[in-house]
Amino acid sequence: MKAKTRKIIGILMIVLPICIFLGVIIAWPLIAIMISQSLGGVTPNDNLEYSAVFNFINVLLGILGLVSMVMIPIGFIAGIILLVKKDNNVMLKTVNDVRQQVSDTNQDNEVSNVDIGGKVE
After folding, report:
1. Is residue 114 part of a domain?
2. Which structural domain, as residue segments, surrounds residue 68?
3. What is the pTM of this model?
4. Any domain includes 41
5. 78 within 8 A of 13, measured Cβ to Cβ
6. Which of 8, 69, 93, 117 could bridge 97 with an S-S bond, Cβ 3.0-4.6 Å?
7. Is 121 among the domain residues?
């Protein structure tokens, strides 16, 4: 992963769960007020048609808030790790690469079978 991409993802992992949690905290009463006002000041529990919708929204926002609360420490830790991590440009050598390098070295170090006098043994 590139450094710029890692930086963007790291910042998002730190900021996004907090923003989602704050959005849920703000949206929950606003949605309750909007539904109550759309019913003419009657609470959603008094009207059975809107009660199911209101309960569904409450459950959905509750689950979203819970998930964002759990993700705040996880996202913070992972985001810091992504922001601090440096590029690792170390090339990994496979076993075949090492064997090839050893065989090349052995071939370079072999003494030819030619005697000093020019005779081949």
Report:
1. no
2. 3-109
3. 0.61
4. yes
5. yes
6. 93
7. no
